[in-house]
Amino acid sequence: MSHDFRSDNVAGAAPEVMTALTAASTGFASPYGNDPWTERLNKRLCALFETEVAVFPVATGTAANALALSAVVPPFGAVYCHEEAHIHVDECGAPEFYTGGAKLVTLPGANGKLTPDAVLNALKTAQFGVVHRMQPSALSLTQATEAGTVYRPEEVAALVDVAHDHGMAVHMDGARFANAVARLGCAPADLTWKAGVDVLTLGGTKGGCLAAEAVIFFNPAQAEDFGYGRKRGGHLVSKGRFLSAQLDAWLEDGLWLRLAGHANAMADRLAAGLSALPGATIAYPVEANEVFIRLPETVIVALEAAGFSFYRWDGGLIRLVTSFDTPAWAVDAFVKIAKSA
Amino acid sequence: MSHDFRSDNVAGAAPEVMTALTAASTGFASPYGNDPWTERLNKRLCALFETEVAVFPVATGTAANALALSAVVPPFGAVYCHEEAHIHVDECGAPEFYTGGAKLVTLPGANGKLTPDAVLNALKTAQFGVVHRMQPSALSLTQATEAGTVYRPEEVAALVDVAHDHGMAVHMDGARFANAVARLGCAPADLTWKAGVDVLTLGGTKGGCLAAEAVIFFNPAQAEDFGYGRKRGGHLVSKGRFLSAQLDAWLEDGLWLRLAGHANAMADRLAAGLSALPGATIAYPVEANEVFIRLPETVIVALEAAGFSFYRWDGGLIRLVTSFDTPAWAVDAFVKIAKSA
Amino acid sequence: MSHDFRSDNVAGAAPEVMTALTAASTGFASPYGNDPWTERLNKRLCALFETEVAVFPVATGTAANALALSAVVPPFGAVYCHEEAHIHVDECGAPEFYTGGAKLVTLPGANGKLTPDAVLNALKTAQFGVVHRMQPSALSLTQATEAGTVYRPEEVAALVDVAHDHGMAVHMDGARFANAVARLGCAPADLTWKAGVDVLTLGGTKGGCLAAEAVIFFNPAQAEDFGYGRKRGGHLVSKGRFLSAQLDAWLEDGLWLRLAGHANAMADRLAAGLSALPGATIAYPVEANEVFIRLPETVIVALEAAGFSFYRWDGGLIRLVTSFDTPAWAVDAFVKIAKSA
Amino acid sequence: MSHDFRSDNVAGAAPEVMTALTAASTGFASPYGNDPWTERLNKRLCALFETEVAVFPVATGTAANALALSAVVPPFGAVYCHEEAHIHVDECGAPEFYTGGAKLVTLPGANGKLTPDAVLNALKTAQFGVVHRMQPSALSLTQATEAGTVYRPEEVAALVDVAHDHGMAVHMDGARFANAVARLGCAPADLTWKAGVDVLTLGGTKGGCLAAEAVIFFNPAQAEDFGYGRKRGGHLVSKGRFLSAQLDAWLEDGLWLRLAGHANAMADRLAAGLSALPGATIAYPVEANEVFIRLPETVIVALEAAGFSFYRWDGGLIRLVTSFDTPAWAVDAFVKIAKSA
């Protein structure tokens, strides 16, 4: 009766994705993305985003982020991001590696979110055009954020304005983009290029794929050399159909949003059940599939003793992540144990 | 009645691999390779190679090669390899990228194979210890070679001796290692660490996986920092079970050798059928799953007209690659068209 | 009657250095550091530091710092430094470039100085051995600091202890090491290897050379590959005598300390004269050749109007830097204008 | 009575350069190239090359070459050069380092010179636009060549045509550009931008400076980011006047050509004296300041025994390099010993 709430990557793959992958596994096809599955995926993403996009599937989110940044940031560039951003904290320097040694400039921000003021403030000391300083080149936003919150389209647009005003490109780390879209109910275009985002890394893995992400350029001109960088990084998959088939099935008929919607609902259910506990404090608004909550130590210990897995962030703050495959009974069991502790 | 002989990566995935992958797709597991599938794979590879090995699955052969080289070659190092080696010709500089700018020194060699004399000759001008020169750091052998030939254990050992005598590590690009082992019928250990190989990139993709390779260190001390490099390169797959499950199923009960054996047999069948043709000349011994053959232009044109796909290497030399999934009828149809042309 | 107090690099070269350089300019000598001047410099530095050191002259401080760090920090490493450190703020990412993309982790600290507590605190979240995180690899101290203060030997030792306890090497950016030694009156060994410093970049340029710095390893084993890195970075000067002759003359008979002592004295003179002004506040203890002082805006404007050059740090805070060549009259004239404003 | 003919970098500095440097050593000036010497140098080079140029002084030829290439070659680029080019053989991978891992493609060529046919032939297999292949991005010519020969303006132009026709930039490694110009008697513009060269590294060091080279862009747009790369590489000299003053004095009133002319004349004198010897064969036309000559072993041994220094290239082939400071008596003494051996 226990469950693993450590992350959404403890889940497996959605059955629809597996079925499509199995169907794609027979017969012969051109390698390196010159296959019908990739062609269909490209068309699907152009339709989904309501514009011409350049799409590059890769197998990991770290690769997607680092490669995307390397397309818009020179080696002497600086990338502005939240201090808890995955690209800064969790990728062992992949952005630095792929950009040839760019610098990440980290900014604080409540609820895991950057604000235009914070970015503007940081840019004050940037010294544009001075060769001693690394040059502001990109702003990277995480959607949904590391705190499980989401940027509204107008929030994205306001941040993009600051970035573009200063000649910086805007990257969106969309490892949990599906959760954000499912929550907001808006069009993917509204959260991205219509708000000015230049390049999105759309995460499929956490959302129900096995290992599939897509780097999506809304301005194909910025993607001109991307193919070389992807190959050079070892991220051009030989039997490309196996990446594209995953993403294509995941996106078909809104499956991605249904899966994300379930994960979000499970987070809501957790938050609803736990927030009523004495001594419990929800740390950030629950807007995606993560719940950050402070609980009494006795409760935490009881949950651990019951076999539940989750991360302790610090002191009494724990992180609970739900996924497309988190069962309602596991949420309820978790809440039940917490209540009885 | 046509077929695609361009490469073995035009094939899909072996049913056994797909089945295992599907089985692995349900339920929850620790991410990043801390899962039962990866544990089982590690044990299997230790048993298969009859020694303690350090195993790092990744999704592409280019990543496997470049990361493996980066573990044994400093930025100021030189990697000696055959002039047709995949790492030199086909990876858009991935080895240069991952090593921080090492240099590949290419050597000629009949039938796609390096010889101890060729390596020794090249090392004569290397100037060890001179800071103006890049320092010989690794020898990279391809097994089976780009010419579809295979090194015997004693050939490997003789090359390793030269390398080790000069302080160089030995890397084996085993994208088609299965084909070599299947052909030679020897133990994997005999072709690798018993002959002195330091690190092998064992290719599963071309042999029937979807996208799975394993970097295998026979001296785990050389692998000490590999985990950081793999993460930093974006090659630590989040849901690691999906890489390990492929490789584990592929290696189980000798499947990998049966699949490679079929591919080899299809290459033999092609060679046997075609070599009897007037004007046909087999360019290299057919020892794996590739046939390089010179055919009269009229024959080549007739085969293309019939819908067969393959690469023209130059002039009248074509390359035909078979795979685990190449049907015998396709081979026979190819030969038939060739004969009637 | 005006003067340039912007930096110590607005000065020229000490006459003794020029004389030595001119003497070195005739005749023939082996290139690349295999010359008598370099041999003499090596001996002199071994004697000066009272131990066997490995010495590598280069032409710039940025090169010296970045190359020194690259010798002790892997690409996946993190370098801990003060948030105002030159390596972070003023080198356009040279450390990132030379290390292959390491990350600088910046820490606050009063008076430009790091404290053991600040470093320990930052290391708490470092997660040693976790492949997702860049690994703490070096601590970089600036001596004298960017705030014109100096670390005492026991302060250095306490910081080194923290670093070494965590497996990190210690680099000292000694662009103004001479000013620190001149101020403290201690032995160079006491400030470096006896306190545990692994590698020092000893700055000659700001102290009276034309363009000469020395990377000095106290543990020659760490310098094993340095020669390749220096050459590869384009920092192995062909006519090496011209770097070594500068440094050798600068160090001869204590010239470096006399020159630094003069610069320090001029800073003291400035501070003494200005601190008595109404509305003046010295921002940091004046311990080297820099004065950070807050002055009324009218005073600052009057000084600028009089033709004096200096940097405004922010609001009313200005930085005044003296050098080996700063004349006392210029200091007095500056103070006089300030007083009369 | 012996002499060092190993290289032109065994010489010291021209007296005129030292005098100018000494004159530049007093007083105060803005750092980082914002000084009157640098301004004068820029003007002088614009006049000398009869066009607007962007000039970046650095201290070494290796830095100049690697930085110049990095401005026109992406990480996935290939640089075509002669197999004996300094950038390939003698820079420990500096071009690979600065470009982020580009590949040098080496070509053979008689007398150290590339031909349009050799380049065209190599480009046949380049596969433009194919992501698996590194993309031809620059052609690098050495003037004078490593064999001591020189390209005529029309030879340069013919090579440039091939490069530009294929979208490649043209870099000229002019470590001995002075010797070439002095020999040909043509305008510097004729050998460079009028023949289509994009970027020249003009070597002052071998020609009589202490340590000074200039990267010169004939199309300033290609230099847009160069300042960042130079700083990042640690090659922006703090007291910039000391680089510019060297180059400015060296170029003033044709000094550079008189110095190079003397070196060339000494090479001619050597060649004339030695070629008459029985068993002597000049290997390449003597067109700059290098003599490659095959001599009987007894002669070589006698010269070595007499204390002369020079490099044995292989077997009986030796290289003799003259410089601005090579005395005629040394040449005559060398020839005399050779004759009497």
UniProtKB/TrEMBL annotation, chains A, B, C, D:
Pfam families: Beta_elim_lyase (PF01212). Its EC number is 4.1.2.48. One of its GO terms (molecular function) is L-allo-threonine aldolase activity. The keyword Lyase applies. Signal peptide: none annotated. Residues 4-295 form the Aromatic amino acid beta-eliminating lyase/threonine aldolase domain. Keywords: Lyase, Plasmid, Pyridoxal phosphate. One of its GO terms (biological process) is L-threonine catabolic process. Its cofactor is pyridoxal 5'-phosphate. InterPro entries: ArAA_b-elim_lyase/Thr_aldolase (IPR001597), Low_specificity_L-TA_bact (IPR026273), PyrdxlP-dep_Trfase (IPR015424), PyrdxlP-dep_Trfase_major (IPR015421), PyrdxlP-dep_Trfase_small (IPR015422). It catalyses: L-threonine = acetaldehyde + glycine; L-allo-threonine = acetaldehyde + glycine. Belongs to the threonine aldolase family. Catalyzes the cleavage of L-allo-threonine and L-threonine to glycine and acetaldehyde. Homotetramer. This is L-threonine aldolase. It comes from Azospirillum thermophilum.
